[in-house]
C-alpha cells in the first residue's frame, strides 16, 4: 500500500511541475483567438499583426497583443487596435461579431480602436458583449465608424471604468444612461 501511495505522490508532483512550467492559455480562449484572426483575415486584414497567432503555437499567452493573468492563465487584455488596416489604410468595413469575445470571461481590457467597425452583426452586437464580459473595465472603440445607433446599447457595460469613443460618426452625445446631452458632432 505504501508503494502505491508513493507512486501517486510522485505522479502528482510531476504533474504539478509540468503545470507550473507551462503558463498556457485555456484551449477555449486559444480557439477564440484563432477565430478572431480568421474574422480579421476574412476582411483581408490582420495578416502581419496577427501572423504570430498560429494553431501550432499552443501558448496564446505569449502571442502579440494578448495578456494573460499569471495565476488563472485566462486572457485579461486584448490589444487589437488597427488590425483591420494595411499601412494605415483600412481594408474593409467590419461589423462587430461579439460572440468571438464571449469566451474571455476574465477580460478586463479590450482595444478595438481603428478597425473600421461600423456596427454589430444582428443579435451579436454590444448587448451580447456587455452581458458576457462581466469583468471588462476598459473598452476602446475610438477611430471607427460607429454611429448613434450603438450608443444606447453601451449602457449594459456596468463594470466599465473607461470607454473611448472619439473619432466615430456620432451626431449626438449620450451618457451611458441613455440621456441626450447635446447634439454636437463628435468627429
TrEMBL record:
Chief localization: other
This protein's record includes keyword Signal: yes
Transmembrane feature ranges: none
Cellular compartment(s): Cell envelope
Keyword Transmembrane helix: no
Keywords (A to Z) from UniProt: Leucine-rich repeat, Repeat, Signal
Region forming the signal peptide: 1-24
Domain named Leucine-rich repeat-containing N-terminal plant-type: residues: 27-69
Family statement drawn from the similarity comment of this UniProt entry: Belongs to the polygalacturonase-inhibiting protein family.
UniProt name for this protein: Leucine-rich repeat-containing N-terminal plant-type domain-containing protein
Organism per entry: Populus trichocarpa
Amino acid at each position: 500500500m505504501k508503494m502505491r501511495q508513493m507512486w501517486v505522490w510522485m505522479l502528482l508532483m510531476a504533474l504539478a511541475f509540468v503545470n507550473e512550467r507551462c503558463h498556457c492559455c485555456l484551449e477555449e480562449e486559444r480557439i477564440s483567438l484563432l477565430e478572431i484572426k480568421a474574422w480579421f483575415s476574412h476582411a483581408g486584414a490582420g495578416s502581419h499583426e496577427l501572423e504570430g497567432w498560429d494553431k501550432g503555437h499552443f501558448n496564446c499567452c505569449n502571442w502579440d497583443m494578448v495578456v494573460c493573468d499569471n495565476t488563472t492563465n485566462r486572457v485579461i487584455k486584448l490589444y487589437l487596435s488597427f488590425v483591420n488596416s494595411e499601412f494605415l489604410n483600412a481594408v474593409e468595413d467590419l461589423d462587430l461579431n461579439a460572440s468571438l469575445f464571449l469566451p474571455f470571461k476574465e477580460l478586463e481590457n479590450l482595444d478595438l480602436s481603428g478597425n473600421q467597425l461600423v456596427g454589430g452583426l444582428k443579435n451579436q452586437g454590444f448587448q451580447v458583449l456587455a452581458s458576457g464580459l462581466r469583468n471588462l473595465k476598459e473598452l476602446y472603440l475610438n477611430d471607427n465608424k460607429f454611429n448613434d445607433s450603438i450608443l444606447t446599447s453601451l449602457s449594459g457595460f456596468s463594470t466599465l471604468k473607461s470607454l473611448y469613443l472619439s473619432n466615430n460618426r456620432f451626431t449626438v452625445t449620450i451618457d451611458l444612461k441613455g440621456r441626450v446631452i447635446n447634439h454636437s458632432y463628435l468627429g
